UniProtKB/TrEMBL annotation:
One MF term in the entry's GO annotations: NAD binding
Active site per UniProt: K212
Residues in 6-phosphogluconate dehydrogenase NADP-binding domain copies: 44-201
Protein name per the record: 6-phosphogluconate dehydrogenase, C-terminal-like protein
Pfam families: NAD_binding_11, NAD_binding_2
UniProt keyword Transcription regulation, yes or no: no
Highest taxon, organism lineage: Eukaryota
InterPro entries xref list: 6-PGluconate_DH-like_C_sf (IPR008927), 6PGD_dom2 (IPR013328), 6PGDH_NADP-bd (IPR006115), HIBADH-like_NADP-bd (IPR029154), HIBADH-related (IPR015815), NAD(P)-bd_dom_sf (IPR036291)
Domain 3-hydroxyisobutyrate dehydrogenase-like NAD-binding positions: 206-324
Organism in which the protein naturally occurs: Artemisia annua
This protein's UniProt keywords: NAD, Oxidoreductase
Length: 339
């Protein structure tokens, strides 16, 4: 009679061990890769953030036949997408509850944290087990790592996948996409991601963000060089249109020149990428430099020049508006030399 409680205890221990092993196995499977082929007939997509970039990126998904549920802070900004067949949700959590994959592309790290990690309305509160959240915002690498950890605990996959290429790349579906996270999940999502641009796998969680920040460091100094060259050419009496045509096929040719050279000459400062957001990106870069113990003087100079644009109330202009800061510094204007 005394052995029965012991037998029950041993059976209970064995059962609990089996359940624990099964749970661990399931968690391992959920963090390796998804299993369903991604296609319009099998996959629903959610999208949060329909600004300058998001509008065009969503349109590619709709044209490919994907069912798309969207949320943005100002519903009127998403009206064109709603007219094209997208469905509206009242919160990030509601988007997630109706989607297998949720993309986010918002303004600042604080926005990313709110839309994904908020305990009431965040994406992860509504996401299905084995769903995928893909943050395409340029944000902090440490936040990307945190999101991946919290998502994994909930049986959800998370990728950081910021993009480069501006509004033109978004419209044409030619963005560079820098992916961090599980490589197997990135491969599973390739049919969707290639609708938006070229997929580049950079490593584990946070590596996509590190790549994008290095990209921004490169762009910052390139933009300074492009505009300094224009001011020098203007002071030299060169026709700026002829000057840009001449250098575009040589060693000075660049994506920045291709995207922004003519816009600068036309005084077209409409944002393909906001000064405010670029200042945010460069600020994150400088913080990461401090953590790494490295000094990048070109980055620091560019950041200060862009901060000066904000000080003049020009934060909602495009990054090509950097010309205004350098024109003020030199008491000149390129307008007289652009013909």
């Amino acid at each position: 009679m005394r052995t029965k409680p012991l037998i029950r205890l041993l059976l209970s221990f064995h059962t609990n061990q089996t359940l624990t092993t099964t749970t661990i196995h399931r968690r391992h499977v959920m963090t390796s890769s998804t299993t369903t082929t991604v296609s319009p007939s099998t996959t629903t997509i959610g999208w949060i953030g329909t600004g300058v970039m998001g509008q065009s990126m969503c349109s590619h998904l709709l044209k490919a036949g994907y069912k798309l549920t969207i949320f943005t802070r100002t519903q009127s900004k998403a009206q064109n997408l709603l007219n094209s067949g997208a469905h509206w949700a009242s919160s990030p959590a509601q988007v997630a509850s109706q989607s297998d994959i949720v993309f986010t592309i918002v303004g600042y790290p604080s926005d990313v944290r709110h839309v994904i990690l908020d305990k009431v309305n965040g994406v992860l509160t509504g996401m299905k087990v084995n769903g995928v959240v893909v943050d395409m915002t340029t944000s902090e690498p440490s936040l990307a790592v945190e999101i991946a950890r919290v998502a994994s605990e909930r049986g959800v996959h998370a990728l950081d996948a910021p993009v480069s290429g501006g509004d033109k790349g978004a419209r044409e579906g030619t963005l560079s996409i820098f992916c961090g996270g599980d490589e197997g999940v990135v491969k599973e999502l390739t049919p969707v991601l290639t609708l938006l641009g070229k997929v580049n796998y950079m490593g584990g969680p946070g590596k996509g963000q590190f790549c994008k920040l290095a990209n921004q460091v490169t762009i910052a100094s390139t933009m300074v060089g492009l505009i300094e060259g224009l001011i020098y050419a203007s002071k030299s009496g060169l026709n700026l249109g002829d000057y840009l045509n001449a250098i575009s096929s040589g060693a000075a040719g660049s994506k920045s020149l291709e995207l922004y050279g003519q816009r600068i000459l036309k005084r077209d400062f409409e944002a393909g990428f906001y000064v405010n957001h670029f200042v945010k990106d460069l600020g994150i870069c400088l913080k990461e430099c401090e953590k790494m113990g490295i000094g990048l003087p070109g980055l620091a100079l560019a950041q200060q020049l862009y901060v000066s644009l904000k000080a003049h109330g020009e934060g909602d202009l495009g990054t090509q508006a950097l010309v205004l800061a350098l024109e003020r510094m030199n008491n000149t204007s390129l307008e007289s030399s652009r013909q």
